[in-house]
Amino acid sequence: MSISEMGTGIYRIIDKHGPRGEIQGIYMIVGDQIGLIDTGSPSPRFAMKILEAIKSYGHNANQVSHIFLTHEHPHHIGGSHEFAKIFPQAVFVIHNEGSAALLDPVRTLLSNNFLLGKMQRVKLTLGTDAFSKMKGIDEDLIQLVSGDEKFDLGGKTILLRATQGHSAAHVFYYCVENRAMFTGDEVQIYPENPYSYYFDATGDVQKREQALKLLLKAKIDVFAPAHDSVFIGPDFKDIIRLALESQHHVEDLILDTLIDGALPTETIQKQIDSSLGLNWGEPYRSLIDAHTARAHLKRLTQDESVTLIEKKRKKGQLVEYWQLTSDRSAEDSEYAF
Fold it and tell me: Is 251 within the bounds of a domain?
C-alpha cells in the first residue's frame, strides 16, 4: 500500500488487488472532519490499512464523518461493511439508485447491474473476492442523494454531481478548496487506457458523454479517477477528449459491423474490445459481459439506426440479435462497391 498527497489535505491511498495487480484506491479529504471516497473491495486488511494511514497523520477513526461512494460496483462499495465497523461516526453517501446494493450487494448487483447467465453468477459469487465476501450495511448508516448536493467537512467543501453514465448510481465529487475532481469510473478504468470504459446494465451512453463534457468545462487542478493515474494541471483534458472520441468510434464501429447482417450482442462486444485494444481480465471480463455494446445499441435505437430483431433466453443467459434499420441498410448499400 502507498500513500501520496495530491494537494493540501487530499491524499490517495492505493493497494494492488486482483490477478493482474490492478490499482484499487480510495481518497482521503481532511478538514476538521474527514471524508473518504469509496471503500475498495471487501478486505479487512485493506480497511485496517486505511485506519493506519489516518492515524499516521495524527487523526482518529471518529473524525471520519462521511464515506462518499462514487457508485455501487463491488470495487467501490465492497469494503463498506468493514468501514462501518472501523469508522462508527461515518455516514455512507450514495445515489438513491445504488441504495439497494449497499443493503444487499450480491443479490442486487447480480439482478440489476450485471445480467449474467446462471453459471457466470455462480462462478462470481463463489470464486472472486469482489462478490463472495460482500456484506450489506444497516439502512440507518446510509445518506441518499439524487442530484447536486453540498457537504461541509470543516475547511473542505465537497460538491456532488450525479452523472449516471457508467452506472445509474454514479456521481462525481468535487473539493472546492483544492479544485479536485474525483471521477470514479466514468473516465479511464482498468486497464489504463483513455479508451477504457464500460457500462453496466443500468448505464447510459448519453449521460456519460454529458459527464465527460462537464469535465472539459469545470475548473479542475486535480483530476482523480478511481483506478488510474492522477493528473495535476490541465493535461487531463487530453484524456477526456480521447474518451469522447472512443464513444463516437464505438458507435461507428457498431454500424459498420452490422452492415453485413444481424449479429448477437456478444459478437458486437468482442468487436468493440478488439477495436479499442482492451483485454479485460477476470472478474472484469464476466462483469462487463456485453453491457457496453448493449448500452450503445440502446442509444442507436433511439435515432433509429439499429433495430432489435430477436430477444430470448438461452441457458439462462439473455441473447439478442440486432440489425441496421432497413433505411440505413439501403443507404449503405447504395454506395457499396
Answer: no
Q: In what order do the strands lie in the sheet with 2-7?
A: 2-7, 10-17, 22-30, 34-37, 64-68, 91-95, 142-145
Nine-digit cell at 219? 475548473
**Residue-number span of the structural domain to which 122 is assigned:** 2-246
Cβ-contact 253, 272 below 8 angstroms: yes
Cα dihedral sign for 283, 308, 185, 80? negative
pLDDT tens for each residue of 82-100: 999 999 999 999 999 999 9
Q: What is the pLDDT of residues 13-44, one digit of tens each?
A: 987 655 555 677 799 999 999 999 999 888 88
In terms of domains, do 328 and 188 share one? no
Q: Which amino acid is at 196?
A: S
- 233 vs 314: CA distance, rounded Å: 50
Domain membership flag for residue 56: yes
The residue type at 95: H
DSSP state of 97: G
Helix axes 236-257, 205-217, angle to 10 degrees: 160
* Same-domain check for residues 117 and 46: yes
Indicate whether 232 and 317 sit together in one domain.
no
Q: Which residues pair with 36 in a beta bridge?
A: 28, 67
CA distance 232 to 127: 38
